[in-house]
């Protein structure tokens, strides 16, 4: 394949022109979201490329992640990479206040966080002029054309790590083959989550010798943090009551969960459901569903205590999921009863939980497949099947223990691939 890195296509030029025109509107929208999350003014300006921290001396390796899940996997990788490269400094960019707060709590050694620049000429130039990264590693599907092209033109070697592309995205890029090849040719390495993505990237125009199928980086993340004080407090409130968790639920899923819970309470009248909505701001909607279902609830955000009559404890807060997983080993993982794509099953599995999922986990198909095949997770399609799965584990400690052990073993197998990922990154990006 000829070198096409210096041959921008007409579509790329059109993209650059449109983003320049749309820049004021994009900034207005982004700024409103940051203000709503109480992000300080100086940090809001990071989206325009204005750094709020100085560039450290020496080698600087830049990781860009989309949001919370990608951020967790990046933190784990940086910790291990930092052991390999003890003089290296690290910059992490992510676009959401939630991910920024998480990084601040779990910042790896020699790391710092910034919000990424908008993909406009001025913001990208300002960002790169300040940081001068020695390598850039984009995580999953974060394809920002101008940022990628400009960083590459300045001599920064680029990698796309944990690459995952939806069928819709692939189909869209294939309709624009010249532009796809132009963008992809700026990467020196693609490490994909599975063979399918590797093939798709090559079909889109990536150089085959730069594409390597790998594993899901999220399997290598450190376990979610556990607040022991909160854990002991909730344990004292629940006493010896049987428990189960419905985590990361979305609109249209709680009805099924609550129906399953109603059926389970016929057999275990004091059963407690710990319900963790994916978006805590939906608490009002969830409260209405609970009222309709006739189930009594306590809300974490209100500081409610779990009383004897509490049937559902709504954990409508952020950053505490690891604590809830430490409380209970039976977890239904949402985003899967509807065509949402699912969520990362390795988080509950790492905590030692047995996992239940609906069928709509297509974003994590390569992650769920070995879990289900090895007996660490099961798939359900209805409230009846969900209640049956939970009932089986509530009534059979041996069955629950076997499923938990299978889930943990699957995670440990995936984790062993981390050193291979680091070897490949260092070799391809000339990191030493």
Written account of the structure:
It is a single chain. The chain is α/β, with parallel strands linked by helices. Helices cover 47% and strands 15% of the residues. It is built from 18 helices and 14 strands. It is globular and about 65 Å long. The protein starts with 9 loop residues before the first helix and ends with a helix.
Question: How would you briefly describe this protein structure?
Answer:
By secondary structure, this protein is of the alpha/beta class. Helices cover 47% and strands 15% of the residues.
Q: How are the secondary structure elements laid out?
A:
Blueprint lengths: L9 H27 L4 H4 L15 E5 L3 H17 L4 E5 L3 H9 L5 E4 L6 H11 L3 E5 L5 H9 L4 E6 L3 H8 L2 H8 L2 E6 L2 H10 L6 E3 L14 H11 L4 E7 L4 H14 L4 E6 L5 H11 L3 E3 L12 E3 L6 H7 L2 E4 L12 H5 L3 E4 L7 H9 L3 E3 L3 H13 L1 H19 L2 H12 L3
Helix pairs in contact: 3-4, 5-6, 10-13, 11-12, 11-16, 16-17
Which features would summarize this protein structure in a list?
432 residues, alpha/beta, 7-stranded parallel beta sheet, 18 helices, globular
Radius of gyration: 23 Å
* Binned strand content: 5-15%
Report, as a whole number of angstroms, the end-to-end distance.
29 Å
How would you classify the helix and strand content by structural class? alpha/beta
| Mean pLDDT across residues | 91
Largest sheet: 7 strands, parallel
**Which quaternary structure do these chains form?**
single chain
The helix count comes to 18
């Amino acid at each position: 394949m000829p070198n096409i890195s210096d041959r921008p296509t007409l579509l790329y030029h059109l993209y650059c022109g449109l983003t320049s025109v749309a820049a004021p509107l994009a900034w207005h929208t982004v700024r409103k979201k940051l203000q709503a999350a109480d992000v300080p003014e100086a940090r809001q300006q990071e989206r325009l490329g204005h750094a709020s921290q100085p560039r450290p001396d020496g080698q600087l390796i830049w990781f860009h992640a989309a949001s919370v899940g990608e951020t967790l996997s990046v933190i784990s990788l940086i910790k291990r990479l930092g052991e390999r490269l003890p003089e290296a400094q690290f910059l992490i960019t992510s676009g959401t206040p939630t991910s920024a707060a998480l990084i601040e709590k779990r910042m790896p050694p020699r790391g710092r966080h910034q919000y990424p620049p908008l993909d406009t000429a001025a913001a990208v130039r300002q960002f790169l002029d300040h940081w001068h990264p020695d390598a850039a590693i984009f995580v999953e599907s974060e394809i920002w054309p101008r940022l990628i092209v400009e960083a590459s033109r300045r001599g920064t070697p680029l990698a796309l790590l944990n690459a995952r592309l939806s069928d819709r995205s692939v189909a869209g890029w294939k309709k624009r083959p010249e532009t796809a090849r132009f963008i992809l040719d700026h990467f020196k390495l693609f490490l994909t989550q599975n063979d399918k993505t590797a093939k798709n990237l090559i079909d889109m125009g990536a150089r085959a010798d730069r594409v390597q199928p790998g594993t899901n980086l999220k399997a290598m993340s450190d376990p979610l943090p556990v607040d022991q004080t909160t854990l002991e407090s909730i344990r004292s409130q629940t006493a010896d009551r049987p428990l189960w968790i419905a985590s990361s639920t979305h609109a249209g899923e709680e009805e099924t969960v609550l129906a399953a819970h109603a059926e389970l309470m016929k057999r275990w009248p004091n059963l407690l459901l710990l319900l963790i909505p994916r978006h805590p701001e939906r608490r009002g909607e969830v409260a209405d569903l609970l009222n309709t279902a006739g189930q009594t609830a306590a809300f974490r955000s209100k500081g409610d205590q779990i009383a004897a009559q509490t049937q559902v404890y709504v954990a409508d807060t952020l950053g505490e999921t690891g604590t809830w997983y430490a409380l209970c080993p039976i977890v239904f993982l949402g985003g899967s009863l509807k065509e949402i794509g699912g969520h990362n099953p390795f988080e509950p599995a790492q905590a030692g939980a047995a996992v239940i999922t609906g069928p709509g986990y297509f974003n994590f198909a390569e992650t769920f497949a070995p879990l289900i095949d090895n007996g660490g997770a099961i798939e359900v399609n209805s409230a009846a099947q969900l209640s049956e799965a939970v009932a089986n584990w509530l009534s059979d400690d041996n069955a629950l223990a076997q499923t938990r052990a299978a889930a943990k073993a699957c995670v440990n197998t995936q984790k062993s691939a981390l050193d291979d990922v680091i070897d490949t990154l260092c070799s391809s990006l000339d990191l030493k």
